[in-house]
Amino acid sequence: MKDGLRFVDCDMHIMEPVDLFERYLDPRFKDRVTTTIGADGTSRRGTIVIDGLPTTQDAELQQYRKRSRPGGTHSSQPLSGSRLADTGRLDFAIERKYNAEAQVIGMQMEGVDIAVLYPTTGLSLIARDHLDPLLSLALCQAYNNWIHEFCQYSPERLKFVAMLPVHDVHLACRELVRCVREMGAVGSFIRPNLVNGHFWHSNYWDPLYSLHEELNVTWGFHEGTGAWYSHMNVLYGENRFYRHVASHWIEMQQALIAMIIGGVFEFHPKLRVGFLEAQNSWVPGLLSRIEWDYPQYRDSHAPYLSLMPREYFRRNCWAAVEGSEPEIEATAGLIGADRMCISTDYPHFDSNFPYVSTNLLKNVPREIAGQIFMGGAQLYGFTENDFRKAAAAAAADKLTATPPGN
Questions:
Q1: Is 345 left (phi over 0), alpha (psi -120 to 50) or beta?
Q2: Pairing state between β 218-222 and 114-118
Q3: What confidence score (pLDDT) does residue 109 get?
Q4: Is the C-alpha dihedral spanning 89, 93, 97, 103 positive or negative?
């Protein structure tokens, strides 16, 4: 808990081990995946190449360095003082090689009861068009098998979402069933970028939408930067600043437009969708824009819609914040704090960890903060029983994992 409030981290990240594919990838595909190696011949953190292409275009686009050494942040957000390259805030995790013990320590530092884990390298692992579907499946299975094993350190507190081979929707369905029924996944994560040109309102995705409903698990949209199929690369090229700002907001907006206007939420009323790591102040403005056009176009272009856009959002959607955004309270007044959730974004470079939860409590009234801390529980369907189990596990975790300074 954080100051007596239950807290579900809707989007906490892991750092995949450098030897993940050596240990978990189907041997039939190992010659198609290469990793950065050190002088000793073993893998180290760096670019992963799949079928001759790096997993992200960032390395290709970034032709020179902007800064030669770490320096202070130029953040204009008064609550974001921890966003420095050299604060030492992650020393405890680095010393433990980002293992599950470090994950639990990070949760204790933030006051997290239950964390839903998302990948780091895995965000870009299959983020391209025309990837061999069977290779896509093998990569997903390797990651999913590893993250399931990782969560066994504290399974009542560490939850994961499955990586799905979206290059074949039927393979994606099979992998989702395996991960949910055999390994306890609480949902899936999918980037909002179009895959092989399939729009999110396309009938292509219907089997996967239906399966999420039947399994009662969450569909999490999570963007990154530098994906091969992202049109932001074409628009903004080398400038990662441009691409990072644009991709996280604009790709999410396009996904929400498709899900609402395209009738996904009309035909899949039980589908729960999270829009993650993109803040959420864009949501009320976008909903207002859709509603502005609703009277002109509903009858001619979307006669199947039976609810107003805002009603679909409040029934089916949650959007995440990261605690220090100055517009959180205003946004909560427009879309409802109960349709917001919060991500620590541990251990990424632009996270405010370990001050995310503290920032939120400073930033908004306690009642609103409490609803946002619990937003992830509604998004992922956690119950009172889940929290009882998590509390018992947290007591045991404190005996084995000690936060820095304690």
A1: left
A2: unpaired
A3: 96
A4: negative
Per DSSP (E only), the strands in 83-123 are 114-118
Yes or no: say if 335 and 314 are a contact pair by the CB < 8 Å rule: yes
Residue 294 has what pLDDT? 96
Residue 111 lies in a domain: yes
* 65 found inside a domain: no
pLDDT digits (tens, 9 = 90+) for 23-72: 999 999 999 999 888 888 888 888 889 898 888 776 666 555 455 444 45
pLDDT at residue 118, as a whole number: 97
* Residues found in the chain: 406
Q: Within a domain: residue 56?
A: no
Q: How many domains does the chain have?
A: 1
For residue 251, give the 3-state DSSP assignment. Answer: helix
Residue 86 lies in a domain: no
What pLDDT, on the 0 to 100 scale, is given for residue 232?
74
Identity of the amino acid at 244: H
Determine contact, residues 146/24, Cβ cutoff 8 Å. yes
Instruction: Report which residue type is found at 259.
Output: M
Low-confidence ranges of the chain (pLDDT < 70): 58-86, 228, 399, 401-403, 405-406
Query: What is the predicted pLDDT for the residue at 73?
Result: 47
pLDDT score recorded for residue 38: 85
Q: What number of other Cβ atoms are within 10 A of residue 36's Cβ? A: 12
Query: Quick one: how far is CA 383 from the chain centroid?
Result: 21
Is 88:98 a contact under the CB 8 Å cutoff?
no
What's the pTM? 0.92
User: Distance between CA 262 and CA 200 in Å, rounded?
Assistant: 8
193: left (phi over 0), alpha (psi -120 to 50) or beta: beta
Q: What is the CATH number of the domain that holds 272?
A: 3.20.20.140
List Cβ neighbours of 60 (8 Å cut-off, separation of 6 or more): 54
